[in-house]
Write the structure tokens for this entry.
Amino acid sequence: MTTTSTTETTPVVPLPARAAALLTGLGAVATAASALMSWTWTDEFPGDLTYYGSPAGLQWLALTAGLLTLAVLLATQGVPGLRWIAPARSNNAVLLAAAGAFAVSWFSVIAISVDLGGLANLEPGGWVAALGSLLALAGTLGLPLDRRTHVPLRILDRRLFLLVPAAPIAWFATHAIPEDKPVAPVLTALAGALVIATGAVLLLQLGHLANSGLRLGTVERPLPAARELPSWVEVLLIVAAFAVGLFAITFGIDTEYGELFIAYLLLAAAVISALGKAGLLARLRALTVKHRPVTTGAAFAAAAGFPFTQTSDQYTSVAANILIFATVALGLNIVVGLAGLLDLGYVAFLGVGAYAAALVSGSPASPIHVQFPFWAAMLTGAVVSMIFGVLIGAPTLRLRGDYLAIVTLGFGEIFRITMLNLNGTTGPKITNGSNGIPRIPDLQILGFDLGKPHTVLGVELGRFSNYYLLMLLVTALVVLVFARVGNSRIGRAWVAIREDETAAEAMGINGFRLKLLAFALGACLAGLAGTVQAHVSYTVTPDQYTFAEALPPNSAFLLAAVILGGMGTISGPLAGATLLFLVPKKLEFLSNYQLLAFGIALIVLMRVRPEGLIPNRRRQLEFHEAAIPTQLTGDTVALTKAGA
Amino acid sequence: MTTTDAPASVSDRPAPAKPLLEVSGVTMRFGGLTAVNDVSLTVGEGEIIGLIGPNGAGKTTFFNCLTGLYVPTEGRVSYRGTVLPPKPHLVTQAGIARTFQNIRLFANMTVLENVLVGRHSRTKEGIFSAILRGPGYHRAEAESRARAMDLLQFTGLADKAEHLARNLPYGEQRKLEIARALASEPGLLLLDEPTAGMNPQETRAAEELVFAIRDKGVSILVIEHDMRFIFNLCDRTAVLVQGQKIVEGDRETVQSDERVITAYLGAPLEGTAPAATETDQ
């Protein structure tokens, strides 16, 4: 068996190490320098990349990528003063950074050529970026990389390669058929699917080829002991890290066109993986574990700082909606991640909270002509939502397995249809049917009108900024509840039920009661978020709360955010929700292919990282059994494997 | 039967003072199949009782009837004089803990967390207490942890407290299951084949552990196939064959009983020489 293969540190391309480093460095410098040159001649390409000496949009990303590659390279080469960037001393970090620079530069150059129609539209800067990043990437292949000694080449099932000739034939065949024939659209769709499948097969095989050629692996090197720093310096480092994080996320939210956002995602993935390989993230994690309260505080301070970086309400409304979505995802994580109950209609609880808040908001369209103060409206939303949670849960949670998923799926739809039907003609007039409850007045909290701009610290905070900050408080509350309950007697009982319900009951756990508690708590938190959502969006309508559609929040996206982000963690669903909200929002230019691209992205992510972006310690061990030996003695591992 | 060298430490214990667990006439039917038929059994305070029988005799079903996993079709199970409710968590609450034949740990929780889950029925901190984290919460949590660590010390797993349960070797998983069951502070512990799959040394260690548990004042009812283990440990042994208890008594009574030998080795054919089937069970 070669699965437990040994590792070595060798270059892929035999080059003198000095020359390889020099090549990489030159490439990185060229990539960074290209940002100061003009990439294209016309300002028709979004972002206007025509200036010398003034980087814009994509050029900033190339500059970052080039400088990062250079920094990591110098750090692994042991340049004094920079060594802290790469404590793990792995040249793979340089490779990843250079790959990021390559991806960003080539993506930009290709986007320019395709958008404007031809390579002729590239100015020297574009060529420099493309060639420089290529040089840098080629150079890293000559550095001594951490590699596995042997990776067998995997060839896909040969029958799959029959697609390669079949796809073009099908494609041309559909073009031969006149468009007015009724079968034409069906055939086009089939041919399209065939072409995509062929692309997937070729890409997968290419991936296998690259994998067995590069044989990149991980050599376990103990991280050298961190230098003893005074406590306040460590705190400052954490604060600085969160400031950088705030800047990066702000950049992502503020991206104005799809190309920039895609390049941003590419760069973000490369930077995170490069810094992870370099060992810098491990260092940072150690610091955050050491100063947990500071970390939590810094995280919320960074989040609260977001509105102060904005000049208009354009992106604070996006941020407020991200926060609502993320908070609801975190609530769902209690139900799915901790207690292991699959809830496919969770968005309905958000809807219950929103409708409850809308009905008591004093909106002229509400049949109840009362205006609760906000705290009372919030309480109403949370309690009503919780009651619905108990009503749905009580009859179904006695069952095990997938019944709950079906019932919650049904409940989600029933909620939406009921809200549609309570319109005065098909039912009592409560919700105005598909018109929803409009004109929900803005909140007044202690005389503070959230609908009006206020100037704080010299920055004008608009309506959405106000709501964003309010929502942040709700998020903080949900995080607090999740963290405290998750790590308590109740939380342990939930995890025990998820792991083995029979054994949990034999330990004295009342399975039904605890599952109902998880369900009710999850519903309550979603309802809480719903009360804010009703005010943020002015109007509540039934079609905001569906099972699946192209834009979040909906039940499918909520579940995806939890699973993609990492089940059972706090930061996981928050990160997952942010990504899942931004990606469809920023990729609107893909129009018809948006869901397709999104689906493919999800499949790739789940294939590469099944435990989620930010995995729970347990889940990571679950999915990467091979990584266990580092913490165990040899004979234990042998026994575990023998038993498996 | 290959039980020859049992130490004489077993049968000289005095007869039980008062019954802890009283099972009378328990019958369990699944449709037309009678898995357990009119079984009665008493476990006294501080006793170790064995339950043996060939595969499929209904031993585990009988256990499930005691622990509320199954509701017996007929019969009565009472613990310390009160009839047990047919709900597993209430049975544990009342003071009966169990382990499982095929280990059922919470595989993705740490060793310590597994034992802490076992403390569930003996602690009360609810959801508001967990959110508010008052001094009472911290005290209860600290006490639970201390108790759990004591139990891990007792079973010899203290140095693996932070390992995932799934990564423990087989023998230690069995020990962890026992530690987890003990965490609910039971008066009676039901062990379902605690030495299955163990080598002789591990079995010896398990014997020691069972005695140590008894010395803590916990009575034990144990299902086993290892006859040496059973006869070394148990004050009395009941034999279950095809759902019926055919005999109950001390080592000699059980070993000399014709029906037990028949059940395990089959009836000798008339006129043939005694076969040399010295198989161990």
Summary: DSSP finds 23 helices and six strands in chain A. Residues 625-644 of chain A have pLDDT under 50 and may be disordered. Chain A touches chain B at residues 480-481, 484-485, 488-493, 495-496, 499-500, 502-511, 517, 521, 618-619, 621-622, 628, 631-632, 635-637, 639-640, 643 (CB under 8 Å).
